[in-house]
Write a structure and sequence with these properties.
The complex is a heterodimer of chains A (270) and B (255). Helices cover 29% and strands 29% of the residues of chain A. With 270 residues, chain A is α+β, with helices and mostly antiparallel strands. Chain A has one domain: Fumarylacetoacetase-like, C-terminal domain (Fumarylacetoacetate hydrolase, domain 2), CATH 3.90.850. In chain A, strand 12 and strand 13 form a beta hairpin. The longest helix of chain A is centred in the first third of the chain and has 17 residues. Chain B has a single domain, classed as Fumarylacetoacetase-like, C-terminal domain (Fumarylacetoacetate hydrolase, domain 2). In chain B, 26% of the residues lie in helices and 31% in strands. Classes of the chains: A alpha+beta (270), B alpha+beta (255).
């Protein structure tokens, strides 16, 4: 981990933000945006706040099973006034299987987005990783629905808010039919996500940074830079292929990705 | 009402011919049937000037489009040969009022298609499938219109570009697409936006053709409807569409 980051993790303001977000998650009570508190220190401080929470989670016995990449759509980046994606950690207790009911009680203000997930055959510890490293590291692609969630009231987030809040991650569902990445069109694969047969989100592979592999390359470099390199077996949620949608209680969302298959996220009624 | 239809047809034909916006239809609301009668009378004027019918277009087939336009009914319009622009060709901005472009799927028919048909019958009538771009251009001021306004105005259809034809056995349910302007992605989507499956639009086309007296014969085209929200055109741009498995098409816009 970089020196500057260690210093930031000792910053009082950073620690207070991490504490507030952990408390918010624990009590499932959303909090006001925290961006103003870290604005002077910038995005590094937000990642430091995230890292404090990650370390607390590991200490509590949760295991990291992968990473999510957020802010991968140029439309969303414009909305937040940023030109970079962000990342968050995926923990073992966030994973749900296809058609397994997700209890709303563990979420606050969930939204769903359809993505391509990658499973890594081996790690990448290279701050200057290229597409070659990403392509060789990926074992399989899987269709995924990421359930994003925000500890910030009404999703009033800026870059700093979402970074400090583990990139607004919630839980995720992976489809169980792995495909090799040369078996479908990563860039032009169509995506439709339906609720009761009606399309609620539409898009394609290119909506994620032009190609989901671009997101993986960004993540690989970033994680190597911050001292948590991608590891063998990691699950990478590469970023939304279409707009995110608020979850309806009891809803069953079914995403189809052309050439990759389908996956569904089923929510409890309450 | 007959006189009104002729007057409205002339108003809309002139607006299209001279690329000059016209006011929405005023007075008591006209029926949808009358609106289609105006559309036919207006297109008949083009036919009398030597244009010929080459197919039909479907409109308001996507949720994004319905939200953008604030309507909930499917509509159709007539395509003539003069509206066809070449793939890779150039269109002239000044021939339009306030043109927009949207990505679509086009069907080429090998059999007549009319009335209530099953998806299987509709697919059997298809010779080939192509990626396509439709240039929509409401002849009304500020692109504002009611359902009957837009139907009378040939459902805003004004020009179209068709890409390479592919065999009909390609599964078109969920093909990803990227529409770009000057090489920068402008819209991402899927053909699933077109009524959940573009073939449903063709089934509806057969029904609307019978209801409003349009012709769907062998050799005719059907533009299935926009798959994303439309983007405004301006001079000196290049618009391109890439569609999963179907390939690409594009056109340039000059002054």
């Amino acid at each position: 981990m970089a020196k500057a980051k260690k210093d930031l993790s000792k910053d009082k303001g950073v620690r207070a933000v991490a504490e507030l977000l952990m408390q918010s998650a624990k009590t499932r009570t959303s909090c006001a945006p925290i961006a103003a508190r870290l604005q002077a220190l910038g995005a590094d401080a937000a990642y430091a706040a995230q890292d404090i929470q990650t370390r607390a989670a590991l200490k509590a016995g949760r295991k990291i099973v992968g990473q999510k990449i957020g802010l991968t759509s140029t439309a969303v980046q414009k909305q937040l006034g940023v030109d970079t994606p962000d990342y968050g950690m995926l923990f073992d207790d966030m994973a749900y299987g296809e058609d397994e009911e997700i209890p709303l009680s563990r979420l606050m203000q969930p939204r769903v987005e359809a993505e391509i997930a990658f499973v890594l055959a081996h790690g990448i510890n290279n701050p200057k990783a290229t597409l070659s490293d990403a392509v060789r590291a990926i074992a399989y692609a899987l269709p995924a629905i990421e359930v994003v969630d925000s500890r910030i009231k009404d999703w009033k987030i800026s870059l700093i808010d979402t970074v400090a809040d583990n990139a607004s991650s919630g839980v995720f569902v992976l489809g169980g039919a792995p495909k090799k990445i040369d078996s479908f069109d990563l860039r032009l694969c169509g995506m439709t996500m339906e609720l009761k047969g009606e399309a609620v989100s539409l898009g394609c592979g290119a909506a994620c940074l032009g190609n989901p592999l671009n997101a993986v390359v960004w993540l690989a470099r970033k994680m190597a830079q911050v001292g948590r390199p991608l590891r063998e077996g990691d699950i990478v949620l590469s970023g939304a292929l279409g707009p995110m949608v608020s979850v309806t209680p009891g809803g069953a969302y079914e995403a189809h990705i052309s050439g990759l298959g389908r996956v569904s996220a089923v929510f409890s009624k309450a | 009402m007959t006189a009104d239809i002729a007057v409205l047809a002339t108003k809309l034909d002139d607006a299209a011919r001279f690329a000059k916006a016209t006011a929405q239809i005023d007075g008591p609301p006209i029926s949808v049937d009358d609106a289609y009668a105006v559309q036919k009378a207006s297109i008949d004027k083009r036919l009398s000037r030597g244009e010929r019918i080459v197919g039909m277009k479907m409109g308001f087939t996507s949720r994004a489009k319905m939200i953008q336009m604030g309507v909930s009914d499917l509509i159709c319009g007539r395509l003539t040969d003069a509206m066809m622009a070449e793939d890779g060709g150039v269109i002239s901005f000044k021939k339009f009022v306030h043109p927009r472009v949207e990505p679509e799927v086009a069907f080429l028919l090998r059999k007549p298609l009319i009335g209530r048909v099953t998806p299987l019958q509709a697919l059997d009538a298809v010779e080939a499938i192509a990626p396509a771009l439709e240039i929509i251009d409401s002849r009304y001021e500020n692109f504002k219109f009611s359902l009957t306004d837009v139907v009378a105005d040939n459902s805003s259809s004004s020009a179209f570009v068709i890409g390479p034809w592919r065999p009909r056995d390609i599964d078109i349910a969920n093909l990803g697409l990227v529409m770009s302007i000057n090489g920068r992605a402008q819209a991402f989507g899927s053909t699933a936006a077109i009524l959940g499956h573009p073939l449903r639009s063709l089934v509806s086309a057969a029904r609307l053709a019978e209801a409003y007296g349009l012709d769907l014969s062998p050799g005719h085209l059907v533009m299935a409807g926009g798959a994303t929200a439309a983007s405004a055109l301006s001079p000196h741009i290049y618009v391109a569409l890439e569609m999963e498995r179907l390939g690409r098409c594009g056109f340039s816009v000059e002054e």
